[in-house]
Design a protein that fits this description.
about 325 residues; alpha+beta; 12 helices; about 50% helix; elongated
Length: about 325
């Protein structure tokens, strides 16, 4: 894509700073005067394309991971150009972020899948899909774009130029999500040998805070069923988890189902006694929530433990009498 159209090479580095090689680079003018690129890049940008200022300073301030560079000038410029902002007579698809965001979307989904597959080994396929959906959805990516200040760098048509500052706008969310996807594609495409690894490390760091929440959620829910079994279990006592009704479609979340599970006790003189119910994004999740609800019912737990203790006492006396 970069070789199809010649652009000015003086667009500033994506960091808003220059590498050692960039700092030593120079451009010879018609008058044979040597002008350092870093001193004169502003005057050689395409019209209305804003220079990329130091987003990594913002990243450090907000404790974001370092923003990786896009080393290819053509890719870097395309990432921040909306198709509608190009002049009709010479507009090409490779000059905007439209094609790049399709590629970036695929890269981000693969990277998210790789990370959660290795990290959450006990989660079901359905739950993994839900975690991934949260990581890659437009709202998440749009927030990253804003956090890095990418929204200030986009060249937009006049009708969208003001809209981009409305953070609650669905149009803005879509644009910022697309630009972030395009940026990821730019990072990978501009460094064929190392780009994917760089992007994967960067995205992993960006997602880490949310992944830690899922870690905690996984660990806490994992113990609910075990805790309940320790609380009410015993010899020939069975705790069962059953769907109370068919899963239903979650409103405003196409393709996402909600499951309903109830937990029952069979033993200690009870037959199919309801202990609790739960709703979740998978059967497993709903079952954990049902167990959690049962454990929180102190009156019920005390009643079962009292009966359990009485049964044990009767059993013990029976053995002693023999």
């Amino acid at each position: 894509m970069g070789g199809k159209r010649k652009r000015q090479n003086s667009l500033c580095n994506i960091h808003g700073s220059y590498s050692d090689a960039d700092n030593s680079s120079a451009r010879r003018t018609d008058s044979n005067a040597v002008v350092p690129l870093a001193e004169n890049f502003q005057t050689h940008l395409r019209p209305n394309v804003p220079a990329y200022r130091p987003t990594n300073a913002v990243a450090e301030q907000r404790r974001l991971p370092h923003l990786p560079p896009i080393s290819n000038t053509d890719l870097r410029q395309a990432v921040f150009t909306h198709q509608g902002a190009l002049k009709a007579e010479d507009a090409k698809h490779e000059d905007s972020y439209e094609r790049l965001e399709i590629l970036g979307d695929a890269y981000i989904e693969v990277i998210a899948s790789r990370i959660i597959f290795e990290r959450f080994k006990d989660l079901s396929a359905g739950r993994l899909s839900q975690v991934r959906e949260f990581l890659v959805k437009n709202e998440t990516l749009a927030r990253f774009s804003r956090d890095y200040g990418l929204h200030r760098k986009i060249k937009l048509p006049p009708d969208l130029a003001q809209e981009i500052h409305n953070s609650s706008s669905k149009v803005t969310t879509k644009i910022l999500g697309d630009v972030f996807e395009a940026y990821v594609a730019g990072v990978i495409q501009s460094s064929p040998e190392t780009g994917f690894s760089i992007a994967e490390t960067w995205l992993g760091q960006l997602w880490e805070a949310r992944l830690l929440e899922f870690d905690a959620e996984t660990e806490s829910t994992k113990s609910y069923k075990q805790d309940l079994m320790r609380k009410v279990g015993g010899k020939k006592v069975k705790v069962s988890y059953e769907e109370s009704k068919p899963p239903n479609q979650v409103r405003d979340r196409p393709g996402q189902l909600e499951y309903h599970v109830e937990v029952y006790l069979n033993g200690w003189g009870w037959n199919h006694r309801l202990l609790g119910s739960g709703t979740g994004r998978s059967k497993q999740d709903a079952g954990h929530r049902a167990a959690s609800m049962a454990l929180k019912n102190k009156e019920l737990m005390d009643e079962i433990e009292a009966v359990k203790a009485e049964k044990y006492q009767v059993s013990s006396l029976s053995r002693d009498s023999k």
